[in-house]
Design brief:
Length: 217
Amino acid sequence: MSERKTRGKIFWLNLRDIKVTRGSPGQSLLEFALVFPIILLIIFGIIEFSRVLFTYVAVSMASREGARYGASVGVNGAGTERYRDCAGVRAAARRIGGMVGVQDADITIYYDHGPGFAQIGACPVSANQISLGDRIVVEVHGAYSPIPVLPLVGLRPFQMNSISKRTIIKNIEIANGPTPGSGGPNQRSPRLANLPLQHKPSHLRTQIHRLLLLRPL
């Protein structure tokens, strides 16, 4: 019995000394070669999606900035109204659109009387062609080009367009009224008067009155 017990202990001791190998270096390299292209494709997919999103946001913001500049009240350094300052509108759009390659040729500026009406003309126009309530329209074209790293994926360049429209405010006459701070408790603020809106469609007149008419305090 003692001899059998001794043999059993020796057998279990030998099992503990056995080292189990789970694979060879060649097998690990093969697994890595199979997985690495998938990981690389996912990484470049994330990068390209971010570039597409960045281009879309830049083009959209460029058209908005151009329209915002053109619809703002005031004149530029040369005394030209901002809605007629074509170079200023394009410069405002390029400040953001330039990050994705937007140039002057990619920016279109024109004017209209509102939804459903024909265009008045392209920038520049004369001051007599534009009236209160007309709109400036800025259209920006941007191009997306994929990184030429993975030609097998089949990504192709494509265009992104953004159009922004803003109402132009000009020639607003203010009715005579008391100077703010000079009257008593019944003092009223000035109201907008003589708005030249008779030639405008009814929906534009309503919109402009809602936005511009100052009601008495």
